[in-house]
């Protein structure tokens, strides 16, 4: 099969972790006789520095022409403490989500048997955790009307959702629940917010089309609590953009390191695959960041982007093997064990494919 992949390394550790995923994808392609055609393009602070824009039109064209986008990370600290900065790397990410129509962000959380004790939570609480948060990604407060009034002394951001936006996300959630354990949890704040009441009403209306799926409705504050108490009680969670942003960061550390969890964003035009973690600027250029979240995102790309399940399974099994054999970066090695470099982990994975 011919695989046309747009490669957006981005900022911070992005380029380093992306390099390892490229090694692994090339090794898999070689083994299964696929032809990979990589096209690199600029995003984030790197693009601002080069062309003054975090998601340039040329980059958008590269993404539109690709079968899938593999993405590193975006963000640079020099923008974070400058509230008046005119362009920010993150704007590139939002523009990209909007222009590619990436309406559903799939963020799984699962545990690795060899890493159970790396989790900040107790073993008995997290064993068996295998959940997916489906975060709506192109609506809500991220894209609502915002501004200042009262001579700049009042600021507002608005959260708007249409029934159609909720339906297309919820449809994916129901379908995903059908292919897993038939449990769906709709997370909202319907005791306060009108937009949440529309979410609940819309999902309730859809229940009759999926009679086998057991649906629960929970408030986001309660879910934030239950996710650390009994994460294994959840299967598929659907939620709006901002709640999903917060809950997926919370869920991502359950596995033991921020550097482990992959994600995909399902789009109207093309789909995008990226690690859940950010650009980790403190580690940039040091060859110490954990590349596994990006490598596992490449596995999601094979399975969900190209429908190549065997290739995805091979990547996952090699990742499991690396963890079991202690071929890990410093976030996982612990004090007394050897920490491998980012590039060494990538080389090891590619060699074991
Ligand atoms: C994420 C990030 C982004 C978001 C930021 C960088 C704009 O936190 O992908 O979760 O808030 O969506
Ligand atoms: Mn986030």
From TrEMBL:
InterPro entries named in the record: IsoCit/isopropylmalate_DH_CS, IsoPropMal-DH-like_dom, Isopropylmalate_DH
Organism superkingdom: Bacteria
Catalytic activity: (2R,3S)-3-isopropylmalate + NAD(+) = 4-methyl-2-oxopentanoate + CO2 + NADH
GO molecular function annotations of the record: 3-isopropylmalate dehydrogenase activity; magnesium ion binding; NAD binding
Pfam families linked to this entry: Iso_dh (PF00180)
GO cellular component: cytosol
UniProt remark on cofactor binding: Binds 1 Mg(2+) or Mn(2+) ion per subunit.
Binding annotation for substrate: 97, 107, 135, 221
Binding site for Mg(2+): 221, 245, 249
Function (record text): Catalyzes the oxidation of 3-carboxy-2-hydroxy-4-methylpentanoate (3-isopropylmalate) to 3-carboxy-4-methyl-2-oxopentanoate. The product decarboxylates to 4-methyl-2 oxopentanoate.
PANTHER family from the UniProt entry: 3-ISOPROPYLMALATE DEHYDROGENASE
Record protein name field: 3-isopropylmalate dehydrogenase
Species whose genome carries this gene: Arcticibacter pallidicorallinus
């Amino acid at each position: 099969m011919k695989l046309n992949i747009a490669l957006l390394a981005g900022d911070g550790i992005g380029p380093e972790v992306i390099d390892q995923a490229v090694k692994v994808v090339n090794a898999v392609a070689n083994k299964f006789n696929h032809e990979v055609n990589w096209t690199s393009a600029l995003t984030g602070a790197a693009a601002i520095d080069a062309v003054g824009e975090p998601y340039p039109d040329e980059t958008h064209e590269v993404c539109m022409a690709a079968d899938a986008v593999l993405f590193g990370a975006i963000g640079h600290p020099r923008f974070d403490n400058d509230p008046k900065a005119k362009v920010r790397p993150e704007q590139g990410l939002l523009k990209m989500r909007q222009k590619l129509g990436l309406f559903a962000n799939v963020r799984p959380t699962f545990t690795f048997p060899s890493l159970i004790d790396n989790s900040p939570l107790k073993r008995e609480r997290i064993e068996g955790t295998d959940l997916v948060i489906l975060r709506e990604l192109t609506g809500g407060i991220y894209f609502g009307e915002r501004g200042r009034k009262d001579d700049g002394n009042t600021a507002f951001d608005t959260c708007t959702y249409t029934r159609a936006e909720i339906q297309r996300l919820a449809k994916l959630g129901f379908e995903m629940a059908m292919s897993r354990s038939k449990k769906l949890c709709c997370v909202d704040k319907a005791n306060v917010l009108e937009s949440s009441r529309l979410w609940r009403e819309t999902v309730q209306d859809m229940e009759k089309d999926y009679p086998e799926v057991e649906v629960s409705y929970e408030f986001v504050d309660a879910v934030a609590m239950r996710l650390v108490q009994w994460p294994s009680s959840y299967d598929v969670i659907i939620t709006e953009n901002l709640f999903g942003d917060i809950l997926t960061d919370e869920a991502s550390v359950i596995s033991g390191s921020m550097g482990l969890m992959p994600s995909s964003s399902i789009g109207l035009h093309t789909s995008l695959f990226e690690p859940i973690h950010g650009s980790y600027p403190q580690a940039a250029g040091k060859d110490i960041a954990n590349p596994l979240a990006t490598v596992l995102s490449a596995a999601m790309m094979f399975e969900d982007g190209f429908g190549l399940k065997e290739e995805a399974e091979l990547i996952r099994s090699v990742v499991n093997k690396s963890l079991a054999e202690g071929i890990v970066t410093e976030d996982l090695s612990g004090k007394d064990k050897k920490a491998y470099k980012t590039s060494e982990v990538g080389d090891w994975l590619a060699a074991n494919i």
